[in-house]
Design a protein that fits this description.
Elements lengths: L1 H20 L2 E4 L1 H14 L6 E7 L4 E4 L4 E11 L4 E10 L2 E21 L14 E7 L7 E2 L9 E2 L9 E2 L3 E2 L2 E3 L4 E8 L2 E9 L3 E2 L3 E6 L5 E6 L4 E7 L1
Parallel strand pairs: 13-18
Antiparallel strand pairs: 1-3, 2-6, 4-5, 5-6, 6-7, 8-10, 9-11, 12-15, 13-14, 14-16, 16-17, 17-18
């Protein structure tokens, strides 16, 4: 009797092993998108793309298959509306498994420099504070700064959040002189140089002409910002 029970248990275990070994192979939206983008490249669209698929099946579960492949055919696209349609066929271990008709939109990607960390207001921005991210070209407007040279060494005019595109209103040249700061005004002409103490009447960046006031006479005049402590008199009023 015991031998019979042992035989039955061994039979059931042997039958269960193949069932447990049979796995489900999944083909998901990422694989579908990758195949569509390869077909775009085959048709001469070599830009980096991002796809949104609205129509068609994008997930397939294949029982017992070891290898799956996605084949794309009849890809058509409208460059004005950035829409596309295509047929996708799924093969499992070399055999046809399923077909689906896809439709969606495609977007050309570029790269933009964005904050890699949150940047506080008035911070002077360095390259180490930035990173590049892919961005849809149609989302980049004229106000956005994507050139590294237009961001590095600039001063944040507001708090900049990590990963957000930077606009020309978000940054500006570094303010060297703040309103109310005591500075040295310099007037030079024909070998003559006169210096006097003055007070800035407004903020100023390097090279900017700002209004200052002679702290002794109270007279106001305009001067160009030379550095954080010096202005050069341009004309008097």
């Amino acid at each position: 009797m015991r031998a019979l029970v042992k035989f039955v248990m061994m039979f059931l275990l042997a039958a269960a092993v193949p069932a447990m070994a049979a796995e489900t192979l999944l083909v998901g939206e990422d694989e579908i998108k990758a195949a569509v983008m390869e077909e775009f490249a085959e048709q001469g669209i070599e830009d980096k793309l991002e796809l949104d698929i609205f129509g068609g099946q994008t997930t397939f579960a294949i029982e017992g298959a070891k290898v799956a492949r996605v084949m794309i055919s009849r890809l058509k696209y409208d460059s004005d509306g950035q829409k596309f349609t295509a047929n996708a066929e799924i093969f499992a271990d070399g055999q046809p498994f399923a077909k689906t008709a896809l439709s969606g939109k495609y977007y050309t990607l570029g790269e933009a420099w964005v904050p890699a960390v949150n940047i506080e207001k008035d911070t002077i921005i360095t390259k180490e504070m930035l990173k590049t991210v892919p961005v849809r070209i149609n989302r980049v407007k004229a106000v956005h700064l994507t050139d590294l040279g237009k961001i590095v060494d600039m001063q944040a005019k507001k708090s900049l959040k990590i990963g957000r595109l930077i606009t020309d209103r978000d940054v500006g040249a570094v303010v060297l002189i703040k309103k109310g700061k005591a500075v040295t005004s310099v007037y030079a002409a024909k070998g003559l140089q006169i210096t006097a103490q003055a007070e800035a009447q407004q903020d100023g960046v390097k090279g900017q002409v700002i209004e200052v006031m002679n702290t002794k006479s109270g007279k106001k005049f305009f001067a160009k910002v030379v550095d954080a402590d010096t202005v050069e008199i341009q004309n008097e009023q």
